[in-house]
Amino acid sequence: MKKKLVISSIFISFLLFSAAVVFVGYSVYVFLVYSNMARGSNYMEDELSEYAQDKFGRTIDIVDWKLGEDDDRYKAVVHVKTLDRQGFKFLIRINKKGEVANDNYQELITRDDVNNRYKESEEIKALQAIGFSSITIGNEVYEEDLAINLPEDIQLFDPAAFEILYDSLPIIHQLNEKITADTGYPLEVLSVNDKWLDLTKSYGNVNSIGQEFARESPEIFYPNFYNDDLLVLQDGLEDLEETILRLRLADANLSCYELKDFESCKHYEVVIDTTEQEDGSVFHTNEKEDLDGLLLVIHRLQKIDLPIDRVSLFPVLVIAKAGVEQDYRASEVFISPIDDVKTVRDIRFQVR
Length: 352
Known about the structure:
It contains 10 helices and 13 strands. It is an alpha+beta fold.
């Protein structure tokens, strides 16, 4: 009996001792955790804010933070927001030495920072020399953009606007390379006179410069000419050159251009409807001939006594690239009826 009591006493004492050890251990653990959190909290609230103020020249606010249990490389991960970025939130990682371990800080760079960095660059000076004003480069977290204004005497939908845009392309390419290397993000939006052209692969852009241009001057576009595939630059800056070229070709003057790999010119597609040939006869005349070929056709038709009901004149843009030709039919002029040759001579003025 005594032996059982001794064993029971020893067992109870062991349980009590174990409970005491667990209690003391848990108390020490809680103390250490809260002490560490308190020290971490002081670091986050004081030292980190001072670091941000020294590094970025701005104030940050601590949203929340946690110890780095999930990643043994870091002591803590801090969720902060910048007070001058409308509450923009950002993660800052603290390594085991208590140092800021982030290898980049572009998310904390404001529009003013980017502009200050590039405002004296050769690219900005070159754009200013071309005639652009109010040049703004921005970093809206993941959206870099370049905003420029045309010279005061040039409107967005003038042919001269696309001339100056085309001349600026090499400079925009250089600027884009610098911004991409510096911030990690390429240009995504080009804004000209507050109208923006998407430089990403998005197909949802309904506010592109091209579509605005098409809406402004619908009479100079063939209906299938402007659509999302052509005017949204799904391949970024690589397509900007071709798109601007197409737009500048489709101006009211329908001028000829020969630029780089493009060979482009204009000809008139003339459809003459007679009483015996309702579908019309198609005649092509080069603009350099000044419609003299059309006059010859009219004379021939008059000689064989075929009454002319209507002459339809289509300025056609011919764009050839890599051996592939595409025709884009622009505006159409109807002359009906034709009373004399003088009326035909006046067609070119009505087209222009």
